[in-house]
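Protein fold
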Amino acid sequence: AMLLCHGMESTRGGDKQVAIAQRFVPMGFTVLGFDFSYVGESEGSFADISIAGEVADALGAIDFIGDFSPSRLTLVGSSLGGAVALLAAATAQHMVSAVATIAALAHASLFTEGLSETELADWRASGRRSWRDAWVGTSLLEEAGSIDILAAVASSSQPVLVMHGDADASVPVGHGRDIAEAAGERAELALFEGVGHRFDGP
């Protein structure tokens, strides 16, 4: 079975999620997609998004799919969902057989990179920060310094397929290399020349 963890600004109906299901279901895989809290058809406000909250959602989905007793369970995570898949796999090693990431974050500090001390203070004081066409609260700010994705990867035992485009302007390709390095011999790193964050080209 495959459990799909979509990206921060996507849903279970995103292009990559649908493409994966269309590819693997005819091959005999059970594929479970779901909307993280605060997006798609799930309840809540996008401003309350947090890495820890998405990990909790993923663990709930792992429990759900476990009721169907898959012989193997692979978590497939894209962008922020890739980091969430890695963190959830470290917690549920007894259930998760492998992880595949697409343009995944290796460092939660990505959300605060490039911000001045004044901007960070304003974010903390106001309780929110503009993000694309929406707002995010302070959870991502606090998690930037408290969640260690690479430590979770290093503590895990599953094989990891790390896919990253070398033209990714949102999550630099170095994140993919760092994940692979943390996984060591368990990792396979696949870099795609000229491919951006969304993997939406040919």
User: Anything to note?
Assistant: The CA atoms of residues 50 and 139 lie 5 Å apart.
